[in-house]
Amino acid sequence: MLRDALLVAGKDLRIELRSRVAIGQVVPFALVVLLLFGLALGPSVGRGSVLYSAAAGLFWIAVLLATVLGVQRSFSIEAVDGASDGLRLSGLDPAGIFLGKAAAIGCELLVLELILALASALLYDRPLTGAVLLLATCAVATVGLVAIGTLYGAVSLGARQRETLLPLLFFPMVAPLLLAATKSWEEAYGTSGHQGTGWLDVLAVFAVAYLAIGTVAFGPLLEDA
Amino acid sequence: MSLTTTTLDEQLDDDAPITVAVETGAFRRSTNPRRSKTRGEQIIAIVGALGLIGMVFTVWLGLWITPPDEFMGNLVRLLYVHPAIAWVMYLAYGGAFLSSLAYLWRRTRSPKWDRLAGSFAEVGVVFTGLTLVTGSIWGRPTWGAWWTWDPLLTTTALLFVLYLGYLAVRRIPGDPEVCARRSAIAALVAFVDVPICYFSVLWWRSLHQAPTVDDPINGKTYIHGSMAWTLLLSFVALTLVFSWLVAQRYRLYNLAALEEEQGLSYALDERRSEGAESTVGGNVMSGTSS
What we know:
The complex is a heterodimer of chains A (225) and B (290).
Chain A: H1 2-19, H2 21-41, H3 50-79, H4 83-89, H5 94-123, H6 131-155, H7 162-173, H8 175-189, H9 198-224
Helix pairs in contact in A: 1-5, 2-3, 2-5, 3-5, 3-6, 3-8, 5-6, 5-9, 6-7, 6-8, 6-9, 8-9
Chain B: H1 8-13, H2 18-31, H3 39-65, H4 82-104, H5 111-143, H6 151-170, H7 176-208, H8 226-282
């Protein structure tokens, strides 16, 4: 299963390296979103401003929007040229395919989060304090995000209205994740007045639950698509 | 290539399509409102009638007979329906979850579970909307706001969009079995999300601010006499109405499936008889022999 996952993740990342869609389109898109937040809520920056206090939430909203694009990209490469048939015929473990695709999106997402975090620190004048908790939050939240994203990507794979269906399914699902990730970042910033890793637990529960569901449910879903 | 066009009546005279004629006849009969009802349909009709009577009595008791509340005044009248609507909502989602589970379980796999899950979810979404609307109407004069970020409220709102998504998944066109399995998985995933939502919002609020809203149940601790009976009646009446709605939606799913099945088999037989006639008549199709 793990070997299959590595194979699929390698394939997806190789496609990304050659086509550069995530780095060339998704990352700039997320940066535009950060800029738009600035236009909507700025222009004042620094302590006490709206942008300063909302920085964590805005960062995670931008990440969520970018995740939808990442997932759509990941499944649009399977939708053309009968690629999904090939995947099904390859004899790879469906759970491995699920984990592989999720891992590939996760890698892309982590790079994106790194860039976005630096950009938001610059644009909103919000220094990245508590780096360990910030990074841990990113890592755990990304697992949950890509697990549910990949699962719903497969659900909407066969649908012709994939572009509109995926966000409708995905966003309500990740509402608790957005909440937990934002609060965890605010803990790291030290503004919530609450120290500890409590929200990391919520994120971890979410990640484990959806990884488990995805691993089990991906097989039957892939048969269909 | 000359194709003989046959009218429906001509075909009905033939030997081959007689089964089709019988099947479509059965289909017509099942949609005919004047035919005698089966036992199940009688029960559903009785449930519907009882639900209607129950609702009439709930409205009558709630609006005219019961006294206004000591603290909430006439606002209390909304509380006769709101909890019952919310109860029906949970009933519906529980039903959708169990039906989806029954569909995914190999031993009990049958299209009827899928249709039942769809019926439950669709009625559930309607009642979620009603829960939100009645709750808001009650909240505005009581709490001074249409909306608060209470865990229950927030989770209900998320439930509403989650199951709208589920209904969208159900509408994806495709092979019925594929659609059913996909929908069942979507229903399970949505259901799992509900407790996570609830607890994360609960935690979010408790970390942020002390609850600004008093426990809305407080008003009910005084409840007795006609008020208690009205509340109880509304639960029974709305559960009956809910069962009736689900049964009707389920019947509609079955009819739609029947129409799809028989519509296709009817068309296939029509094509086959056309082919058979053209071979006999003009010997056009050389490959087929009857």
